[in-house]
Write a structure and sequence with these properties.
The complex is a heterotrimer of chains A (399), B (463) and C (294). Helices cover 35% and strands 16% of the residues of chain B. Chain B is of the alpha/beta class. In chain B, β1 (79-80) and β2 form a beta hairpin. Chain C has 11 helices and 2 strands. Classes of the chains: A mainly alpha (399), B alpha/beta (463), C mainly alpha (294). Chains in contact: A-B, A-C, B-C.
Chain lengths: 399, 463, 294
């Protein structure tokens, strides 16, 4: 088909406008990353200790949501069980820190490894069990996890929870106080600021690794499997290996998020890791927009804003028990207005804007304006917006 | 990268294996008694709080913020002119939501007292009390965030009537650090008896261990060789009963035996039906129901017709509202009682109950709520807090706590006439130590044994 | 040994409820391809209506009917406003899953708002009596639950095989586009499906509530058991839901009593069984095998 309709000047393709400020020399992607880093650096200085602490908690959710996004958004395997992997990471870290006197960051690394292994383990049967059945099996895992914690009371502390504590001199004796994050002298930072930066660095690393992954061959394979598994297999993609490894990586991310959560709370309880947690991860992924790297961050921030700001600060006390009602209605409405989440909404708006611009640049014969502006067409890679865009979708205009 | 500040030199402190804090504290209590005898160690890291303490009459104050505060001490935060801001945390969702009614009682008490001009405090001023409520869904993972918000953002003076054992434990570290009182905890976990490591916490219920021991004292008189089947909640609450029963049997060289035990997970999706069926197989003489929430009375409906044991239910499920879930199977069961029962015809002749019924109705409580037995618990906790203000010479956090640690036979709220509230620092850390055994007869609680005062001995019942 | 039978009886009683909720899930899945996360909450809400009707003076069986009708209406309305606008869920399941999660939260919170948060006593439909066989005691309530379950299965068989509505539902379930072309009012049929599921939910709730007291969290965990039931039995099989439900019920009540290692994990044996079954038969015990055109 190419070349048959008309010969276009090579620098301009229908619908493509060079994207990025300064005439496209700096892409939006770099602006995005630099902007994120700046926001992260500034945040703990702008917020007081209390709010810095709250926002630090959002970071844990963001990392875990990114893990789920990798699996469900990019690879199409629905998981309702990431709460369990989050919990696995949290408990691994807590046991390491309290039981083995380990260093905090060692706990994070250990959590990543253990969760990765668990993910591989779940990924294997997931090869046979697909779609909604897989969702149910992962739901089972999510439901079983708190029970497992209670069963293994000896190491996990059971229902009474596990506190990462240390003996502290107090009133002439010694009391077990929860461990603290203490900023090293040379940084000149307050403890809460230091903790936030450590979390932010870990989260940024996770996001950067994920961004790299989805642009790699592995990432393209993941998306190919999501879109049409049989076709992918026919094209030589090692489906089984990719699916299992994706499960593993996704779980590792959830585990890191969980470890961070444990370090943030300095204590863990089984009730924090029930099915509800898994469902909230799913909500965060969808709020942000599945299959985009920045989506989970947006989702986590949105959810955090909702829980900590809107429901506690903005709503009067009488209405606070209405929070789940409001969230529920919000989700229902959101799915009708913006099923692609925040990122999807932005993409749709951009596409409409670009298409309107493109129709002024060049109108290919035989293609109506409606086709170009139809939001139901699959992602158009021609917008070339790597921060928001799903880069691995096959180009639909190639025929 | 070292993120942790070593508290003590590594060689001198061994990290303990995981156990609930209270067991660790039990080891520590013996050290603390020695240390108390030898005087205070001033290795503590403290911020010099601006505390000019006046000692309560009699004993040395239990808390000295200059030495006993792990971080900054704010003595009068939450006292805003003639208003004192207090906080509470309770579950409005989840399996323990029935206890939200306790908070209602607390709230209504303050409303009632404020309407009458406030609490006349020991410093001569009348204060109105404003309550800010938080919700943790009975999930100890959520409690710290909620409490932190109340303490740091709302700026409360103290917590009152906070509900739950693990939930309170989850913030103990924080409260020690911030030096904020938590008064009248709505839990009787024996751990609160180790008040040297939690001086800012004072319980508002009798120790569960004492409760079990007191009942066994009564029951063993008529059934000295009874076999007990125990259904216990699988957390601090239920295990307190379990430990106390075993300890009582050993300490008294008794012929009573614990022949069967079943744990029950209150957060699980199951009923106690299967566990009860299994316990029924033991043919025990006494069925001790050591669980809380709505499954406690409902368990009574699961007792098979072939098993006719004496039944004991936890004090936390003895209210009329809770027992209505038993669908009539509560006849003949035992419990213990330290408070007046607004649903009891006999107690309704008592002046204190009448005052409660009148005052409660005046602030909008319904007849069902007044007689339900759960609202009255909250009302009593509010009264406890008010009394501590009345007796405290100054409105600072440490003064109010020290006052509470030196209660001398106070008759407060809806506690029975023979139940004086007495404490003495760490020698007698429990406020409520007198109770009587009651039996459910014709839908009412009737005395089965007289009030016994176990003053100062609660800790000895705990394992 | 009699203890064992006692546990089995308890398990069957619970399993009947899981089967009922599972059947509702199957009805919705077959017609809309949606796994309805809010099924339990709609059931709970309908059960509250039963409770209110009974409190207002109606005898319990009549109150149940009222609850079923009101529940059906609510189920249909919720489908109309939350799910129908999202289009075909088989193509894109995630938004629908999220929408049903949203309904879950909203309905749960609404129930608390309307009826408050304390557990309220709920009478047993079949009374407090029991049949004694040896030392095993079988509540009339449990026998009643199994009987009602059987009646429901029969009713569905009749509905699907003998009525026009049933035919329309089967047609929509198998091929919505062709059905629409053939003149079947697809959306009305889907509405009916959700309504029916809600009505069964009311029945399920009526059997669950006496054991817990009725409050907004009544069906929270029952839903998970029902999911387990249909995963075992097959998403699109009513018989599968029944068999799956009963097996899950029995396993969950019996296994932890004998295997100490899982005494705090009642769901473990059921889920292990499900994983085992799905590995060998990915469509569940009674589900239809999906053949995909390549």
């Amino acid at each position: 088909m190419s070349g048959s309709v008309l010969e276009e000047p090579p620098t301009v393709r229908p619908g493509v406008v060079p994207s990025g400020p300064f005439g496209g020399r700096v892409s939006w992607r770099w602006i995005g990353w630099i902007g994120a880093v700046i926001v992260l650096i500034v945040t703990p200085h702008v917020l007081d200790a209390f709010w810095t602490g709250k926002v630090t908690g959002w970071v844990c959710l963001a990392v875990a949501a990114q893990g789920l996004n990798l699996l469900t958004g990019y690879n199409g395997q629905i998981s309702a069980g990431h709460g369990a992997l989050y919990g696995l990471g949290a408990y691994t870290c807590a046991i390491w820190v309290d039981h083995f006197d380990g260093q905090f960051l060692g706990g994070v690394a250990l959590a990543a490894i253990v969760s990765f292994a668990a993910g591989l383990l779940i990924g294997l049967p997931a090869l046979r069990i697909k779609g909604l059945y897989l969702a149910l099996v992962t739901l089972a895992v999510a439901t079983l996890f708190p029970d497992l914690v209670k069963q293994l009371e000896g190491i996990t502390g059971g229902q009474q929870g596990l506190k990462m504590s240390e003996p502290v001199p107090y009133r002439g004796t010694v009391v077990q106080q929860n461990v603290k994050w203490v900023a090293p002298e040379w940084t000149g930072l307050a403890d809460d600021q230091w903790r936030f930066y450590v979390f932010a660095v870990i989260a940024l690393a996770c996001f950067a690794l994920t961004a790299n992954l989805v642009r790699s061959r592995m990432g393209r394979a993941m998306v190919a499997i999501r879109d049409n598994e049989v076709a992918a297999e026919t094209n030589g993609v090692p489906v089984a290996r990719v699916k299992v490894v994706t499960f593993g990586l996704s779980s590792a991310l959830a585990g890191v998020g969980g470890a961070l959560f444990a370090l943030w709370q300095t204590q863990v309880f089984p009730l924090s890791f029930t099915l509800t947690a898994s469902l909230y991860f799913l909500v965060a992924v969808v709020l942000g927009g599945p299959s985009s790297v920045i989506g989970p961050a947006i989702g986590a921030i949105s959810y955090g804003l909702f829980e900590d700001v809107l429901s506690k600060k903005v709503l009067p006390e009488r209405w606070q028990s209405l929070t789940p009602l409001i969230l529920g209605v919000l989700l229902v409405v959101l799915m009708q207005l913006a099923p692609g989440g925040t990122v999807g909404m932005v993409q749709t708006l951009r596409r409409r804007r670009l298409a309107r611009r493109a129709s002024g640049v060049l109108q290919p014969a035989g293609q109506t304006v409606d086709q170009a502006t139809d939001p139901a067409t699959p992602d158009d890679p021609a917008t070339d917006d790597p921060v928001l865009d799903d880069p691995a979708t096959p180009d639909p205009t190639n025929d | 990268m070292s993120n942790r500040q070593p508290a003590l030199s590594p060689s001198s402190v061994r990290r303990r294996p995981i156990r609930p804090v209270r067991l660790g504290a039990a080891l520590v209590i013996s050290l603390s008694l020695v240390a108390a005898a030898c005087g205070r160690d001033d290795e503590t890291t403290t911020d010099g709080g601006n505390s000019s303490e006046t000692t309560a009459p009699g004993a040395a104050p239990f808390i000295d913020p200059a030495k006993d505060c792990l971080e900054g001490y704010e003595p009068t935060k939450g006292v805003n002119g003639t208003e004192i801001l207090v906080g509470t945390v309770r579950p409005t969702t989840g399996p323990a939501r029935i206890y939200d009614t306790v908070t209602k009682g607390l709230e209504k008490y303050f409303e009632s007292v404020n309407a009458k001009g406030g609490v006349k405090a020991g410093d001569g001023t009348s204060y109105t009390i404003k309550l800010v409520k938080g919700d943790d869904g009975y999930d100890p993972g959520k409690t710290p965030g909620v409490v932190q918000s109340l303490v740091e953002t709302d700026g409360i003076f103290a917590m009152v009537g906070q509900i739950g054992t693990e939930t309170n434990e989850a913030v103990k570290s924080y409260m020690n650090t911030k030096c904020v009182p938590s008064i009248g905890l709505s839990t009787g976990s024996p751990g609160w008896g180790q008040n040297n490591t939690s001086p800012w916490y004072i319980g508002g219920l009798p120790s569960y261990a004492l409760e079990a021991g007191a009942f066994l004292d009564f029951y063993s008189k008529t059934k000295p060789e009874a076999k007990i089947a125990l259904l216990y909640q699988n957390d601090d609450f239920g295990k307190a009963y379990q430990g106390a029963i075993k300890k009582w049997i050993t300490d008294n060289n008794s012929k009573i035996t614990l022949v069967a035990e079943q744990p029950y997970d209150a957060t699980s999706s199951q009923t106690t039906e299967a566990a009860t069926a299994e316990l029924a197989g033991s043919g025990a003489d006494l069925f001790f129901v050591g669980i809380g929430g709505s499954q406690c009375p409902i368990t009574l409906t699961f007792i098979p017709a072939t098993w006719t044991p004496d039944v004991y239910t936890s004090i936390t499920c003895s209210g009329k509202l809770a027992l209505s879930l038993a669908q009539g199977k509560d006849e003949g069961i035992y419990s213990t009682q330290a408070t007046l029962d607004p649903a009891s015809a006999e107690d309704q002749t008592n002046a204190k109950v009448q005052a409660f019924l009148t005052d409660g109705a005046a602030v909008g409580l319904t007849k069902d709520e007044l007689e339900g037995g759960i609202v009255s618990v909250g009302w009593g906790l509010g009264a406890l807090f008010a009394r501590s203000l009345e007796l405290s010479p100054k409105m600072t956090r440490a003064d109010v706590m020290n006052t509470l640690w030196q209660f001398d036979g106070e008759q407060v709220g809806l506690f029975r006439d023979g139940v004086p509230l007495t404490t003495d620092n760490d020698v007698d850390p429990w406020l409520i130590e007198a109770m009587r055994v009651v039996k459910r007869t014709g839908g009412q609680w009737v005395e089965a044994g007289p009030i016994v005062d176990y003053a100062g001995t609660s800790n000895s019942f705990a394992s | 040994m009699s203890e064992f039978f006692q546990f089995v009886v308890i398990g069957l009683g619970n399993g009947a409820v899981y089967a009922m909720v599972g059947m509702g899930l199957v009805v919705i899945y077959r017609s809309t391809g949606v796994l309805n996360f809010s099924q339990g909450e709609i059931a709970m809400f309908s059960t509250f209506i039963v409770w209110s009707a009974h409190e207002a003076g109606l005898p319990l069986p009549l109150a149940l009917v009222v609850g079923m009708i009101a529940g059906a209406a609510i189920g249909a309305v919720l489908f109309r406003i939350a799910v129908q606008p999202l289009g075909d869920s088989k193509a894109n399941p995630l938004p629908v899953v999220i929408a049903t999660i949203g309904l879950f939260l909203a309905v749960n919170a609404s129930a608390s708002l309307v009826w408050g948060s304390e557990s309220k006593p709920f009478e047993k439909l079949f009374g407090l009596g029991a049949l004694e066989i040896g030392s095993v005691s079988i509540d009339y309530q449990k026998i009643g639950a199994l009987a009602v379950l059987a009646v429901e299965v029969l009713a569905f068989q009749l509905l699907f095989n003998r009525t026009k509505l049933g035919l329309a539902m089967r047609s929509v379930a198998s091929n919505p586009e062709s059905s629409a072309l053939a003149g079947v009012p697809v959306n009305r049929v889907l509405l009916a499906g959700w309504g029916l599921a809600a009505a069964i939910g009311a029945v399920a709730g009526t059997f669950t509530a006496p054991n817990f007291g009725i409050d907004a969290n009544l069906m929270l965990n029952t839903l998970v058991f029902a999911f387990a039931a249909i995963a075992l039995g097959g998403f699109d099989s009513l018989i599968g839901a029944v068999v799956g439900g009963l097996i899950v019920g029995v396993l969950t009540d019996v296994a932890p009593r004998y295997i100490d290692a899982i005494d705090k994990m009642p769901l473990a044996p059921a889920f292990l069984l499900i994983v085992a079954v799905l590995l060998f038969r990915p469509e569940g015990l009674f589900g239809t095998r999906r053949v995909q055109r390549v």
